[in-house]
Amino acid sequence: MIEEQFQLEKMRTNAKITQAEMAVRLGVSQSQVSRYEQDPDNVLSGVLKKWQQICGELASVKGLEMEDPRVELQARIKLMTDYATVEPQPGNVPTKTAPVNADGFLAGVYIAAKKPKVGVFGQFDAGKSRLINVLLGGDRLPTGYQPATSVVCLLRHVNDKPSWQAEDVWLMSKGFNLDMADDQAHCLKHKMFAGGYESLSQYGTHKGAGKQHKAFAATVYVDSPLLLAADLVDLPGYGHSDDDKDRAEMAQKMVDVLIYASQATGFMDQNDLNYLSVLMRNLPVVEDSNGRVAPLRNMLVVATHAHHIVQPGGLNEILDAASLRSYKHLDNAITDRKLQAGAPITLGDFRNRMFTFSADDSRIRDAFEQDVKDLLVNAVPQSTLRRVNTHVLLAKAEATGSCDRWITGLQAALDEREKAQAEITAIKEGEPSRLRKKKAHQQKINGLIDNFANESNVLIANTFVDRTSALAIEAMIKRRYDNKKEAQQLAAAYLVDSLQKSINDGVKVKANQLGEEIEVFLDGYGPAIDKAALQAGGWDFNARVAFMSAISGLGTIGALAAWASIAAAGSNLGAYILLGQVVGWLSSIGISLGGAGSVMTFVSAIGGPITLGIALAVGVVLAIFSLFGDSWQTKLSKKIHEGLVKQQAERQMCDGVTKYWADTKSAFEIAVVKTEEAYQSKLKSLYTLAFTTKREEIAAELKFAKETHAFFVGMPWRATPN
How do beta strands 299-304 and 354-356 pair? Predict the structure, then answer.
């Protein structure tokens, strides 16, 4: 043999593989790898061949090459961050806290500019980890036909690794939030194990899970150009275990770009379509009515292991057939998407989002890779810049406006103190009347919530009567399906998805009605004086911001998410933009301040307590039946009806809406208490300003307020056309 073939250590280091990683790939101990390298002449030919394959495979896949598309945006944000170091300080001013500050301003900007997350979903045998490895260049994630990944892997660029995290891999316990990978306290709380990439094979796979208490997630830092543009999230495959399903569902609302992988053989079967329906409803809308972004631009559906399809034209035929079948089955999700985007989605648009992939043949994956690259280098950065631009302009306007109101109030307290005292006295004298009205309105809203809960259960009962009888199901089957096999695979899932949509749409109407009533309730927090009075100009209490801040700290809020979307879309949009906690929370439920049309709302954010779990269960039940005879539609409809009864689908949906409205009521009560506390705190501060603060102290605070106003006017940002 050629001498170089025996330079095992050099071969391994050139491929950037550690001894520990090589040991995992070979299935031997690390000490055995060391002995191979020390005595290569006695290495068995089979081991040598596998060694060469491992190193050669990794060296030949370079991954997607791209420049960092976020350089300009990061430079512009850094300019603001540096400018913030000269923020005016209160000094000897009694009121140490300004109503606005640079930290709050920048917190919202950072959220608006956050690096996008690309989530890779699919069934356990779809080859998701292999696809990610090819995109990154190198084998960082465990792969295999059997389900390998058992944790949610958040892959980030090595430059993003926090200074306090020395290792490339941290395994995390359940409860870890993927959006808090930079939060040291949160990460340390959930840290289970730290190590190199080999840790994923040892503790992050089904094969190795027994070696450690089961990890739930992992943060993985990799030196790959693609990760300059986006974080990647590798999900456990659906269909292996309930734990994996929970992990996958946890992450489905946290991604900005969706890659759905399905084997080319059996591409987009009934389970794939069920999962994709849910994922589409949680995917941010990036397209808009002006056509700047193509429909479904942030969704890619990929036929993996495509090199197994050898017949001429076979891959295109597979994609064509799957797109037609998917477009028909997903019409409810597509309709929701159309309404959100305000733009049509045609069959051709859907077909354009389907691609082929093979790790072994770059020609098969070329179109997919080029689309990913264009998405991450052009489309997403442009969308992010538009969002940040809108956010910064709104934040500057709100910050300076808040300072104007602050200055007005201080000037009134300084120049016309007696009038200011009279005004605040009038407000306090009107408090008993306001509190009585508030209590009555609060009781009215609680009654509305109870009524909506009852009406929602009636809606479910009526919907099941109308849509789930054997005759109704048979009519649906005859209307939608000519093919027996397709009907057997898809009819049950389509029915339950339609039930969910119908019920959720009805619940959303009630949620929006509640939101409108809460808006009226919050109007009652206006100052009880003439709007033209001096003190009114300095009144800077925003009940909606206080209410929003209260619910943003709660875990479940039910229909109050509908109110949040109404409030964020209204004229008070800018009022929330200076509160990083609120901006982050709105983003987490699918409401983006500064997104397309100013507010971008997911269907899931504004109502809809029903999930897809029943559809999957019914689909599995039906898959075991064989249907024969001319009246196959009748037999199938009876089986679907029996499956729904067996799964207690109606009861599960009723339980869902009952909890939804109970969560709504609980969150409303908590938010009302916290909003009232904030209101009383504002009254107290105004009273102190008007009656007990010395003139020289007011003058000092006025100077501080004017300096703060000038600071935000000068916040550096070059506006760009949206």
Answer: parallel
